[in-house]
């Protein structure tokens, strides 16, 4: 889900790039924009961004960047990451998630989208650089995007411009109306994409109600929103890629709808994970329906990517 067009134009015209800021400068610099916040169930407007009005609900290309390739890395931030009872299967589980998403049928649900020069989003070009852990105290409430940017710039020694850096904190979301978001900025003079995730243990608003064996509720919740944000970053990494006439990105349009209870990844793991919007599927009236009743959602399980 994106800011309205007027706000986005204001951001882009007045601030050409976001850079890593020192903590003492944080109040003097604009935050990177929050894109694609995965709204919690039941939040106001949570189902109002499937777009299209009276016309086509399909996503439109806005002449900006896509991510043909993606190097992913996870950052776990907070004092609770030293507690085995909290960590449980989260770190090892997300390592498996990122290691298996590349070349999966799920990742291929984004591969139809192309950029200005004919570049194409490619599921076979997603790699995982592993994770790092910072056991210093994370923010105690919903953080500014600049705080998350500062953290990843501190923890990632050599960022890459096709990098996607996911920061997982041990902070519950509290009264925040979203489970996660993605954004972009410049870190150490390198353009990067990044995302933020709350601790979703015991959070019914962000719970996909997975029945996959061996997954804790907290891991299952993180896995689902992880798919949402990575899919949106691949197709709209910097605010001018693919989204529909209401500003909904491909994950937004299929939020909290599932084609099947388990989707297999390329490393043999399985996950309950929401689908992504496919223009190709909608045009053929294929895929499963989103919460607005529009067919076009694909999850890579029962509903496979449409052959181009």
Which labels suit this protein?
22% strand; 308 residues; disordered N terminus; alpha/beta; Collagenase (Catalytic Domain); six-stranded mixed beta sheet; three-stranded antiparallel beta sheet
Q: Please report the distance between the alpha carbons of the first and last residues.
A: 26 Å
- Kindly report the spatial arrangement of strands forming the biggest sheet: 1-6-7-5-3-4
CATH class categorisation of the domain at 65-244 = Alpha Beta
Based on the coordinates given, report the CATH architecture of the domain at 65-244: 3-Layer(aba) Sandwich
Measured as a percent range, the helix fraction is: 10-25%
Strand content: 15-25%
Number of discrete helical segments: 6
Mean pLDDT: 89
Question: What does this molecule look like?
Answer:
The chain has helices spanning 5-14, 84-87, 90-101, 145-155, 217-235, 279-283; strands at residues 35-39, 60-61, 70-77, 126-134, 163-172, 178-187, 190-199, 242-243, 263-264, 270-271, 276-277, 288-289, 295-298. It is 20% helix and 22% strand. It has a domain at 65-244: Collagenase (Catalytic Domain). The protein has 308 residues and is of the alpha/beta class. It is globular and about 50 Å long. A 6-stranded mixed sheet has the order 1-6-7-5-3-4, with helices on both faces. Strands 11-13-12 form a 3-stranded antiparallel sheet.
